[in-house]
Amino acid sequence: MSSRPELLAPPEIFYDESEARKYTSSSRIVEIQARLSERALELLALPDDGVPRFLLDIGCGSGLSGETLSENGHQWIGLDISASMLNVAVEREVEGDLLLGDMGQGLGLRAGVIDGAISISAVQWLCNADKSSHEPRLRLKAFFGSLYRCLSRGARAVFQVYPENIAQRELILRQALQAGFGGGLVVDYPHSTKKRKEFLVLTCGSVPTSINEGYKESCSEDDDSEDEENGMVGVSDRNRPRKKQRTNKKGKGREWVLRKKEQSRRKGNDVPHDSKYTARKRKSRF
Amino acid sequence: MRLIVHNMMSCNIKGVVNNFPLRIEAEKVIEKEVDFNPDFLRHMFAKIEWKALVDGARSLGYTELPDHAPDTAALESDESFLRQFHHALLELHLEEGSLVCPETGRKFSVNKGIPNMLLHEDEV
Ligand SMILES: C[S@@+](CC[C@H](N)C(=O)[O-])C[C@H]1O[C@@H](n2cnc3c(N)ncnc32)[C@H](O)[C@@H]1O
């Protein structure tokens, strides 16, 4: 996702048949979405009693995120606005039940029946007005209101989101809190432009048992960019000054370099072979 | 669409009060086996609207469920009941057909097992 697909076309148009296939056959995307889903499931903090739960995957697409739920033994409903994405999910024989629907129209589900919800890389789509009748604030309101109602008390909803800017992040958060949710933002790897991931962790009803913190990079400089806002976990801005975005003193590490080299090789580039010198620091005389 | 989902779905059209359950018009029903998990069934039982499940199962051609929900003791001891519950809830799929709003009669079509719940602009 180099440019922002949300800005190109409405989701049901952007995710047409060819995009749906392209999306699902990219091993890079498959891997990233699986990792994000694992993390979201972890943040859902379901009781550790071995009983499968009945979960919701909002903006489920071709089922990449839902598969993580199945692998962990859960039953799920996936909702998506793109028929093409859902068709790919059917072809891939995902185990969840699929619904074609628009989250911005609210969820037609009974009160208190769902044990938890995840949504991976989808909710930022609601911030765009794709039709003249669309008002992002109202669509977010309808969505979060209906989600709040259908979740059981104490249940959580975890959203991995790519807000375009601070205003979008705040709009999403504000609508969630107004719907009655508690909770806030968890930021993993806040100092890395590439790895940085945001999860909105919401709790329904009872007070959350402290949301665990995001993964931090080792030895980061002191952290003045993360203001405590209304008792939420670090809300920070993506567009921080460049200096801040350079990561830790140790550099990116050997593993990272090896992965990048491998990626480059797969693209057919001529890449130096790996040796014990790979990713070593140069002596200062260089 | 399985009955576990049907049992949770209500009609989302603006202003509709009598929104549950959606009536099922079945054209094609399929069955897919699912691992039997009594813990999950017990967990779900309290959430289920029993009459809607019985009627839903009937409209998919399955008539074994008791008319009245058994008490929770049956969930512990009565395996044959649990098996019926399991089958109705998780193994029957409405593959082709429609869901009909009980108040307005609006039909939501179901194709390849996927209900189309998209609302028209004047229904939002
Ligand atoms: C980047 S994909 C992510 C899909 C899946 N969660 C995954 O991890 O692979 C975003 C999905 O959100 C869906 N989406 C966007 N707006 C939506 C809306 N208003 N209602 C339901 N789904 C929506 C798109 O159709 C698309 O399938």
TrEMBL record, chain A:
State a GO cellular component annotated for this protein.
cytoplasm
Where does the record place the 18S rRNA (guanine(1575)-N(7))-methyltransferase Bud23 C-terminal domain? 202-283
Per UniProt, residues of the Methyltransferase type domain are 56-158
Query: Which GO MF terms does the UniProt record name?
Result: rRNA (guanine) methyltransferase activity
Task: Provide the residue span(s) of the region labelled Disordered.
Answer: 214-286
Q: Where is the composition biased (Basic residues)?
A: 240-252
- Ranges of compositional bias, category Acidic residues: 220-230
Statement: the UniProt record of this protein carries the keyword Lipoprotein: no
Q: Where in the cell is it found?
A: Cytoplasm; Nucleus
Superkingdom per UniProt: Eukaryota
- GO terms for biological process, alphabetical: callus formation; lateral root development; maintenance of root meristem identity; rRNA (guanine-N7)-methylation
Give the similarity note: Belongs to the class I-like SAM-binding methyltransferase superfamily. BUD23/WBSCR22 family.
Report the protein name in the record: Methyltransferase type 11 domain-containing protein
UniProtKB/TrEMBL annotation, chain B:
List, alphabetically, the CDD domains matched.
Trm112-like
Which Pfam families does UniProt cross-reference here?
Answer: Trm112p (PF03966)
Subunit arrangement? Interacts with TRM9.
What is the name of the protein in this document?
Trm112p-like protein
Q: What family does this chain come from, according to its entry?
A: Belongs to the TRM112 family.
Q: Which terms in the Gene Ontology molecular function aspect does this entry carry?
A: protein heterodimerization activity
One GO-annotated biological process of the protein: rRNA (guanine-N7)-methylation
